[in-house]
Amino acid sequence: MTQILHIVGGGMAGSEAAWQAANMGVNVVLHEMRPKVETFAHQTGNLGEMVCSNSFRSDDDEQNAVGLLHWEMRKADGLIMTTAGEHRLPAGGALAVDRDPFAESITAKLKALPNVSVSYEEVTELPDEGQWIFATGPLTSPDLGAAIQRETGAEALAFFDAIAPIVYAESIDMSKAWMQSRYDKGETEEERTAYLNCPMTKDQHEAFIDALLAADKTEFHEGETAGYFDGCLPIEVMAERGRETLRHGPMKPVGLTNPHAPDDKPYAVVQLRRDNALGTLFNIVGFQTKMKYGAQADVFKMIPGLENARFARLGGIHRNTFLNSPTLLDTQMRLKSKPNIRFAGQITGVEGYVESAAMGLLAGRMAAAEILGQDLTEVPQDSAMGALIHHITGGAEAKTFQPMNVNFGLFRPVEGLKGGRRGRKDRYKAYTDRAKEAWSGWLTQFA
Predict the structure, then answer these.
(1) What residues pair up with 271 in beta bridges, in sequence order?
(2) Distance CA 12, CA 113 (A)
(3) Which residues, in sequence order, are CB contacts of 175 under 8 Å at separation 6+?
(4) Each residue of 321-370: pLDDT tens digit?
(5) Is the dihedral of CA 128, 129, 133, 139 positive or negative?
(6) Residues 398-442: tens digit of each pLDDT
(7) What string of DSSP letters covers 159-187?
């Protein structure tokens, strides 16, 4: 076996794909254009760099679909999940990591494999020969994007991801803020106090919304459209949908008690989550934004406790390009018009670090199996992996296709269980039990 697997893009999906294929015995060349060619959002040339949140979201593998996806990736010796566990930070029931050591570790692990090499050059065309995986993510370069457009004959679909700001912990006024996870969730005291909370009265909330709506925003270039993904809306877009929208989203005041005023129920609460192991940086949870930098500082300093905040990074916005995968990809994630090319990660129309890495895991194993002459059975639809890949390669409606997080709405129903909120706990446990059995069975063919 001398054929090389080329993987373009060293983010979550590309790194995971390289790890999986290399551990199946395939020689891999990982092409990453950074740091030679920079992007708007990346800070380093490390593989697996986290550019938005530092959280992989819920780690509950019995009641949460993304937690189930964590479990499936760990079961498959996933690089991203294993390394996340090594650099975990307290975050209640979520899996958050110290982002810089995490990326450094991903880079070191891949470079330590004897059958993996990294090429720091930009790939701008879709090759006619060889086995390739394109996992270039939301910041696919313009030249490569144009090549994909030429090949698919379809206009690239675009929406905008906004990056939440990061605050220096020492600049937060703890006489107004306090540490607590919602409903004191977590196994340890550290987990139960993983979030920093800033309370607002009704008057403060109303003034904040007014300032948010009036702030200067980043303008879109001609020909761009703001087709936002609902799971990652900029806060000002949420505010434009209704003055109470944020109170029912990232600023909801539930499950929290202010120790500075235990009898006063906050009208709204802004939460911050630790962004590094030292606890010197906190990101404002759910506060993706397209406000201009000067406006951001002014608006965010209206939040009680952040009046004197200093920002390690302000928010930003960037274009995110993805394929209309239901029309373009087969069930093996291959481009129908060029079967030597697979796509993986966020460019396929999944949303989030975990989902992107999961599609990289599948693409890496599928490509390696093809090179090795192995026939794989179809990924079971009842697994979280299978639910996602089924959605993007045919389960979704092509005309209205939008990026999707993993969720139990993508799973086939389990017969005989109650619907609605009352039966949800039993239903979710049944989904996860069924998924674990299906996924474990699929993995046996690699033994």
Answers:
(1) 197
(2) 17
(3) 260
(4) 789 899 999 999 999 999 999 999 999 999 889 999 999 999 999 999 99
(5) negative
(6) 877 878 889 988 998 888 887 666 788 999 999 999 999 999 999
(7) EEEEEPPEEEGGGS-TTT-EE--GGG-SS
312 assigned to a ligand binding site: no
**Residue 13 labelled as part of a binding site:** yes
Task: Tell me which residue of 270, 311, 307, 313 sits closest to 175, measured CA to CA.
Answer: 307
Q: For 167-210, how does the pLDDT look when each residue is reduced to its tens digit (9 = 90+)? A: 999 999 999 999 999 999 988 999 999 999 999 999 999 999 99
Burial 345-358 (b: 16+ CB within 10 A, else e): bbbbbbbbbbbbbb
Instruction: Flag whether the pTM goes above 0.85.
Output: no
Residue 315 is labelled as binding a ligand: no
Burial (Cβ within 10 Å: 0-12, 13-18, ≥19) of residue 233: buried
The b/e string for 71-102 (b: 16+ C-beta within 10 A; e otherwise) is: bbbeebebbbbebbeebbbbbbbbbbbbbbeb
Domains of the chain: 4-156+323-446 (3.50.50.60), 163-319 (2.40.30.260)
Q: Any known ligand binding at 349?
A: no
C-alpha 104, offset from chain centre? 18
